[in-house]
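Chain A, query sequence.
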Amino acid sequence: MNRLLVALCCLLASAHGLKLGTALRKWLGAAAVASTFTHPSLAATEGSVVVLGAGGKTGSQIVSILAKQGVKVQPAYARRTENRFEGVENVLPPLVADVTKPDSLPEALKGAKSVIFAASASNKGGKAAAVDFLGVKNTAEAAVADKVPQLVVISSAAVTRPNSLGYKVTNLFGGIMGFKIQGEDALRAAYAGEGAKGLSYAIIRPGGLVDGPSVGPSKIELNQGDTIAGEINRSDVAECAAAAAISKTIPSAVTFEISELGRTGPLEGGLKSVSGYEQVGPTYDESFKGLKSNFYRVD
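Chain A, predicted structure.
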């Protein structure tokens, strides 16, 4: 078995906050108490970027990145929890918005210029069916109803490749990969209606997430068609999601994979090592320009 693919499977699982059992780790060769908000906000501040899942590793990095860029950003949590960004410049009062509860979203998203969905199933954050499928569906429908200009969703590579090793191993954890593609499809359906005219979305599909410093956009490869995947630092995914939320060049209705250059490979046998859809640029805005709209799988 190709050890790179094996490692990627392990990373894909850990990327979603899922713990591998001892036996499975061996087979794969894998070597805060919450307090309560005093005054949570009920609605997004006009013109802000709302980050759903701001309590997670990726979501919290996205909040920090946007704030440092001078963007007004509003962290949102499923439950009342500590305000870890209190006093940080450009970070607005937190929202309580649970993606599994549709009624909590319309008011929370109203007035936002962008929404980033950085939530995912985990041991503490809810099951895949509720978060990765229905949570994405609920968020997309609320964003369309509230006329939010841009929705960014972090999904996963290999979601359209059920025969790939990455899909099969990761899907052992509550069927998460199947629910992720259902979430993507529900999002696309929400944006296909008349009410979504003039609105846009971006679905980002990282491969195996690792914790490390970002390497920057010039060393990141964007791809399309769900044929190529590889390792990527969580911090680079956060930077890309932040860029997609405020970009003036990203196409509408776009889906793409993201990996670090030199750490990629075909998701399954029979797929080429070069897709022809690779995009690399000095900035994410430059890389975004070459992406195709309404394209999410090569048959």
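The first helix runs from residue 3 to 15. The radius of gyration is 18 Å.
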